[in-house]
Please model this.
Amino acid sequence: MPATNETPAAPRVIKRVDINLDRLAANNMVTSDGGRNPVAEEFRTIKRPLIDNAFSQDGRPVNRNNLIMVTSALPGEGKTFSAINLAISIAMELDHTVLLVDADVARPSVLRTLGLKSEAGLMDLLLDANLDMADVLLKTNIDTLTILPAGKSHRHATELLASQTMSSLLDEIASRYPDRIVIFDSPPLLLTSEARVLASQMGQIVVVVEAETTTIHAVKSALRQLETCSNVNLVYNKARDFPGQENYGYYYN
Model:
């Protein structure tokens, strides 16, 4: 074999960011220390059937069921709050790692909610074939949680999310690590076409419904967008059982 002067490619280093866990706790969110605040307990209940549906008895992902999209009918119902809490709660499991994807590419808010600055991400991967996923992933100080930001906005976001490039990316994300669960913070279903495109490629859907605010008509309209999806679940958010206390409820559709 002829000699070559080519230098082996250097291994790609994933950028690390630190989530302020005290800030999460102050905002009544799930933290990785296993605390038993009411929100943490609610998400312990919410996550269990999602994890059970994601894997077969031998521990392998089933039909992309480890790809879980969190959405809502309208803005402001708490989908990003729920997606982040769900991701951190699952990351506390002993047997799973979590990738949290900000797929609300028009109005990304995962990094802002976590107190982190904007970074390249999903849209950049779809637009630049030379980018590797490792170039845009953010490893966090929660060891089992990694974030894929939304990246730059783009006027053809719907077409990019519906592309073969996106489908191939989802296959890679779903299968690269057999223990991985991927949480997608999606746009609201009734405002954008991106959410419907994403939903068609997910294994499970969680629809966040704001108690006493979202109308039945809006919920039914949102669910009609998901008629082709077999695993659709509802999280009833901000329900008040006692003065000053907000709770979540989990329901199958």
Summary: The chain has a mean pLDDT of 87. The longest helix spans residues 38-54. The radius of gyration is 18 Å. Residues 96 and 179 are 5 Å apart (CA to CA).
